[in-house]
Structure formats: C-alpha cells, structure tokens
Amino acid sequence: MKLVIAEKPSVAKAIAAVLHADERKNGYMEGGGYLVSWCIGHLISFADAAGYNEQYRKWNYDDLPIIPQEWKFVIAGGKEQQFSVLKDLMHRNDVTEIINACDSGREGELIFRFVYEQADCGKPFSRLWISSMEESAIREGFSNLKDGHDYDNLYQSALCRAKADWLIGINATRLFSILYHKTLNVGRVQTPTLDMIVKRDYAIDSFKKEKYHVVRLQAGGMTALSEKLFDPAAAQQMKTACEKSQAVCTSLTKEAKTAAPPKLFDLTALQREANRLFGFTAKQTLDYVQTLYEKRLLTYPRTDSKYITSDMAGSTEELISGLCGILPFMQGIALTPDLSRIVDNAKVTDHHAILPTAEFVKNGFAALTESEKKIVILVCAKLLCAVAAPYTYEAVTAVFECGGYRFTAKGKTPTCEGWREIDRLSRSVLKSKDDEDEAEPEETALPPLAEGQTFENAAAEITEHYTQPPKAFTEDTLLSAMENAGKEETPDEAERKGLGTTATRAGIIEKLIHAGFVQRSGKKLKATKDGINLTVVLPEALTSPLLTADWETRLVEIAKGNEDPAGFMCGIEEMAAELVKSYSHISEDKAKLFAPQREAIGTCPRCGAAVYEGKKNYYCGNRSCNFVMWKNDRFFEQRKKAFTKSIAAALLKDGKVKIKGMYSTKTGNTFDGVVVLADTGGKYVNYRVEQNRK
C-alpha cells in the first residue's frame, strides 16, 4: 500500500480520482492500492517564542535576542485531527512507501518534510511533480516519480529560509515594539514593501508641478506639436511667428514596427491585469483563481512562469482549437497558432504558466460567478493572444518648419492587427478598459505627406499643461515593483526573485493594511503616519530588498549543495544579535513617535490642561491633576441620558449645557433643563440642574 500526501484536500481528491482511491474514510481516501490524504497547508510550524520559555510571553528587551538552540515545532491550531490521521497512516503496517504530492518547490517540500519528521516516519518516500490537476498530467507525474531524497538540499534551503524569517521577524518585531510601545510587525518582505510605498508617497507629496506650454500647429488637416516651453513669452512669440506663415514638411520618416504578442500569465501578471481592469485586489484574484483551479478549469495558479514546456505543445494546440470554438469573441476569427513563442523548458521552474484546461473547454462558463468568468476570459484571451500573429504597423514621424520653429507630428497605420484584434474583442466582451490615467492616447494615421510639401496659412494655438507627479501605487503597480525589487542582485536560478513570491505578495499587501501601515483609497495604496514612522526608525538592512536578494543567492547555493546550511544560519543569528545590540535605547521624543493621536475635547477647569476622551471617561491630560468626568456618572444615568462627547465639550467650554428629554425620578416625566458643571475640586466631579421646564 502506498500513501500519497497532498498539500490540500482539493488536490488529494483529484489525485484519488485518477488512482481509483474511491472509498472515503475519515481524513483520507482508499482504493487501487493507494491511500490518499492531505495536509491542509502548513500542518506543522515553528513554536512561538513562549514555547521555548514561559518568560517570553512578556516582551522584554533583556530577553533578546531569542535564538533557539534546538528548534521546537507545534501542530497548527485546528489541524490536530488531520495530523493525527496522517501520522496513523504513515505508521500503518501495510503502508510501505510515502509519496510526497505537496506543491512543487521549496514551500511544498517544507510542508511535507515537517509532517514526515514530526510523525517520526522512517519509511521511504518519493516525489510527485505536477503543474496541472488534469487527469493526464497526474498520470504522467505518477509514471515519473523521483526519489524523495533527491530533494534533500531543496529542503535544507527551505528550512534555512523559514528559520531565518522566524529569527529576524521575532527579534526585530519585539525589539522595535518594546522601544516604541506599540506592536510593530517587522518582516523581511513586508517592511521593504512598505518602504517602497512610503518613498513613492514622499515623491508625490514633495513634487512641485510646473506649468508649461505647447504650441500646436494646424496644417493640412493634421496637428504638429512644438517642444515643451516653460516660458509663456517664448510660446507667444512662437505662435505669433507661425500665424499665417507657410509650414514646410522638412522630414518624413516611415518605419515598419512590430509589437510582439504578450507572454502567458503567471500569478502576479494575472493579479496586476485584474486589478487594472476590474479593480480586484491581489487577494481577490488569488481566491478566484484558486477556486477555478479546484474546479479543474484552470491550471495551478501559484506559478511564476509565463511559459509551457515542449511536451505540452500538442495538448496546448488542441486546447487552443477548443477555445476558438466556444469563446464568443473568437467567432469568425482565423487563428493559426504559433506555439514557439510560449514554449521554453528553461523558463519553467516548478509550474508552467496559468492556462485554461480541457475541462473548461468541455463545460464552458456554466455555474461560474461573474468574477470567475472575468478571470477565465482573461486567461483564455491571454493564451490566444500569445500564439497569435504579431501586431505590425507603420510609424510615421513628420517634421515641419514654420516661422523659423520646428514642430513634430506622429501617426500610426496598422498593417496587421494580429493579437491586438483578439485583445480588443475580448475586452469588449468584458466591458472593461484601462484607467484613464493609465491608458495612452492612440496615435491615428497621418494624411499622405511628402518631404518639401508646403502648407499655406498655418494656424497656431497655445495649450497649457502641468508636469505630473509620480502616480500613487495601485496593487497593479505595487505587485510589479515587488516582483522587480532587488532583481539585479538576485541570481538567475533563484527560486524567489523580488519581494515575496507569486503566492505570498497578495497576503503581504493585506498584512500591511490590516496592521494600519497602509490604507486603500479606491485603487490607490498610501502609507499611514505609522507606516511612514516605521520605515524611518528601522535600519536600512530591514527596509531594503537587498537582504532578500542576498538570502536568495545563498539559498540557491544551499539548494545546489554548494553552501553549508549551518554557516548560513550562523550569519542570521549574528545579524539578530547585532540588531538588538545596536538598538538598546532611544530618546524620549522618538519613543512618542507611535503614540496615538489624541483630540482634545476641551480645557481642564482645574489646571488648564487639555481634556481627552477615554473609553470610560473624559480625563485631564496632566497626570498630576485628578480631574475626571465618568461616562457612567450616576447623575446622567438617573436622568437616563448618555454622557456624550458633545455634552462633555459644552460643559468644559461654557460650564453648562442644555439637555432635552431628561427623566425625572420624582414625577416620572421627562423635562428639558440646563446642567451645570459644579466642580468643587474633590475626587469626583459634581453636576446640578440649573432650572427645570415642563
């Protein structure tokens, strides 16, 4: 009997169907000589700091750095039962071999090995490596199982990455949270991401726009433009010189140009396009595409490749033919696919690009939500565009002289629409278009021209413009920035380039927002005051993507067997210790950087200091002053009136406030009256009703 362990229940279910393991059991399926079970993601993780010493439950500077001598592990909360199922299956007498069917790559290796080791299993294990949940892909994967120990170095690389993130994350987070009296989550990926947003916001805020002018020359039914003119007098002089003057075409350049078809989608590219076209957040897109994967309508989503392998060419060609038959926007379009542009074995690491499946061709859009339909159409259209003919056009640049000045007109004439036609038709079905500030104006064709051609009585006008600041990050542009951060310093064969992975970038953005360091404003992402302050107080090593690039370089070498994991971890431990040593104390002013912003509601009648609203009271900000007005004061409760902020503010400002509908305990009726702040300087503040009116 062979035990197959997948990373997720949905994957296990698909594998079980192919292996004919049809009998459902508690936490696994059985049949055909196989047991098929699953991990539910990370079943095992590192213990938190308190797992090593109870005193670590409290965050104290003197306990730092926290560096485990022997790493401890815990079962993820709520997943104890599934781990117990896997452990029992591993130790069944009839199980002779384990098959690791977790996702390919570093993280999947880590998930399986943690379970394997914590279950104290010593049985031989093999590795399944697949990129699609289609039956043919699963069968092929099982016919090419690898020895599990071939991936030992990959596991060591994954283990080092996980330990390093734990060490820097735990120590940096506790260190700066202790120093600044506020929980400040610091991470190798999220902190440099935050820093990019902060720097972009600063560039926008510090930008000083400048007015400039452009003289527009109208001649022969076309418009030619001058260069930018920052001097309005110079623009007026140019306009005057051109009026009723002859314009001459002094240069005419025609150039045949080609726009190559786009590449296929990896996850980040799909998230970017869905954000740009539909406003989906990166997390929403990941959720949609994961659901479509589990429905077998798309291939594996968490991929960083935009290519397929050569052995997929035949099935992909069949897929394209099927798509042309079922997609409404492809009706009447003749497509001769060129797969050479999307096949590159060297550029497929763990998984190939995201593709629709034969299952989708079979079932179409039935039972899909509107959002899921949009994602599927994007993926289908991208595949068809990628194998279509290039878009070709003739670019024309005409230079004119008029009144002694130079003007330029540009035009574009398509010669073959190619992939652009499919792109345009699919967008019309989606009824989507790029943001106005993102889309570039289309150049139209110029009328027939010849060098030396003259135009009498040219007209000129001046238009005013302003230089534009950088654009605020959207999830589209931030994902791109994360993907490319530190890329030049990262080795080509690194598993992770940029900040985060295709699978984790959406979560990083959500964490920054949840922590209060970044806020969404429509599509825009902007740093908060706390986010700005955090990047200011942290050392550059933690805000720069170069740390990730350095780690990836070394982790690649560990995965190759060229670097000692122990040496890598020694360097990480030294970094954590040095960080704690370098930030032993800060000034009192700096310690107040993250203090909550308090809004004074009035002035203390006793000492003149500001009075603030607390959860249960209105209190004087002067610690030596005892002035407090309690929200549950008996005076207001007896009269069945809430002691609101506006009442408190009026009492502090005028010493009295008119309140309607107070309850009288004597008469049982309500009345309107003026409440007076009758403070005598004692422990409790007193109030009285100045007058009653029925």
Fill in the keyword field for this structure.
single chain; 694 residues; alpha+beta; Rossmann fold; Topoisomerase I, domain 2; Topoisomerase I, domain 3; seven-stranded mixed beta sheet; four-stranded antiparallel beta sheet; 26 strands; 37% helix; globular
Descriptive notes:
The structure is a single chain. The chain is α+β, with helices and mostly antiparallel strands and 694 residues long. The chain has five domains: 2-160, Rossmann fold (3-Layer(aba) Sandwich), CATH 3.40.50; 162-204 and 473-590, Orthogonal Bundle (Topoisomerase I, domain 2), CATH 1.10.460; 211-260 and 392-466, Topoisomerase I, domain 3 (Distorted Sandwich); 267-389, Topoisomerase I, domain 4 (Orthogonal Bundle), CATH 1.10.290; 600-693, no CATH class. It has a seven-stranded mixed β-sheet with strand order 2-3-4-1-7-8-9, with helices on both faces. Strands 14-13-12-15 form a four-stranded antiparallel β-sheet. Strands 20-21-22-23 form a four-stranded antiparallel β-sheet, with helices on one face. α3 (106-118) packs across α5, α5 (152-180) runs antiparallel to α18 (546-560) and α8 (267-278) crosses α9. The radius of gyration is 34 Å and the shape is globular. The relative contact order is 0.11. Mean pLDDT is 91; it is low at 435-439.
